[in-house]
Specification:
This protein is α+β, with helices and mostly antiparallel strands and 333 residues long. Strand 3 and strand 4 form a beta hairpin. The longest helix has 21 residues.
């Protein structure tokens, strides 16, 4: 099943808050929660599972959330949480920023950094939609994302509006999707989110050279992620598409310790690795997985995969969950 629905009303009123704490810790993060409505905490959670990426709709009354350094040391899945506020008031504090949001706003939090949040939601309707995804899945350097944490992003127009409408439609149509739709839905969600981040950085281009560099890097990331399946994607085509020299592109990526060719190869291999680890795609031939992400020669792909992860792609697909859990092999995060 792609969709999981939960309501605290399955238990008696005094037990509802404790049940919500348990469910939220399993589906999202383990945090310290407090509510003025804990004596009868009426909440709903609806999770759309898109593999590594999940989209959740949440409904709850008053709620305060605190994530501490101690909590992070105890458990950190290293994920970003993109919150789209449906209704009610919201306040978030992370990375030195204290932000107030209203209905229609988007905002990004990082599970690896302490944060505080308080919500006064509207009863009997969804309070927010939350996209949760690993740091490694978003093709942007963490130092680039750091400046956008707890920053309001309008979901009422522009790319933010496109992304917000996409999330709302995902939730509304969640029951219509099948496992075969997962790769496409996850890819579109990721591409739109990356485009939103890129636009936010573009808006700050006039501030300083670092902001301009970050905006250019974000645009390049979006361009590359959308074209990984094209075997004709090369460093030269990337540079030409962004009206910069190949040397400039090389310098830009050198700041992150890589080269254009190595970066393209790494992103393609990561996409292949995630597909091979997905049991819902187990019937898809290895060659089809490779071709989907721009590798036209199966033997060449197999050599690259083995060099990167220490195991051939066919063997990687058969790794047991226990082996992955023990990190005996580089399983999908």
């Amino acid at each position: 099943m792609l969709v999981t629905d939960f309501s605290t009303e399955v238990v008696a009123a005094p037990e509802r808050f404790a049940l919500f704490e348990e469910v939220a810790a399993g589906s999202h993060l383990r945090n310290r929660l407090r509510s003025d409505d804990r004596e009868d905490f009426r909440a709903r959670v609806r999770v759309l599972d898109l593999g590594e990426l999940q989209v959740s709709a949440l409904s709850f009354p008053h709620l305060e959330i605190t994530r501490t350094a101690k909590t992070i040391r105890q458990s950190d899945p290293e994920v970003y949480m993109v919150n789209y506020i449906f209704g009610g008031g919201a306040g978030f504090a992370q990375a030195g920023k204290d932000t107030t949001l209203r209905a229609g706003d988007l905002m990004v939090l990082d599970s690896s950094r302490p944060f505080d949040a308080h919500r006064h939601a509207v009863r009997e309707s969804w309070s927010q939609l939350t996209v949760q995804l690993p740091h490694t899945l978003l093709p942007l350097p963490e130092k680039t994302m750091r400046g956008l944490l707890a920053v309001p992003i309008s979901g009422r127009g522009g790319m933010g509006g496109v992304f917000a409408r996409w999330l709302a439609d995902l939730d509304a149509r969640a029951d219509e999707f099948t496992p075969a739709d997962i790769p496409t839905l996850a890819s579109v969600t990721l591409d739109l989110l990356t485009a939103v981040v890129a636009r936010c950085l573009e808006a700050e281009e006039a501030l300083n050279p670092e902001a301009r560099r970050s905006a250019l890097r974000a645009r390049i990331n979006v361009y590359v992620e959308q074209r990984l399946g094209d075997p004709a994607l090369t460093p030269r085509t990337i540079a030409d598409a962004h009206h910069i020299s190949l040397r400039h592109l090389q310098q830009l990526l050198a700041e992150d310790g890589t080269s254009p060719a190595a970066w393209i190869r790494h992103r393609r291999l990561e996409r292949c690795r995630h597909d091979l680890a997905d049991p819902r795609l187990s019937a898809r031939p290895v060659q089809a997985v490779a071709e989907r992400w721009g590798f036209v020669n199966l033997a060449h792909f197999s050599r690259l995969f083995r060099d990167a992860y220490g195991i051939p792609p066919r063997d990687y697909r058969t790794l047991s969950p226990k082996t992955c859990a023990n990190r005996q092999q580089p399983c999908a995060d």
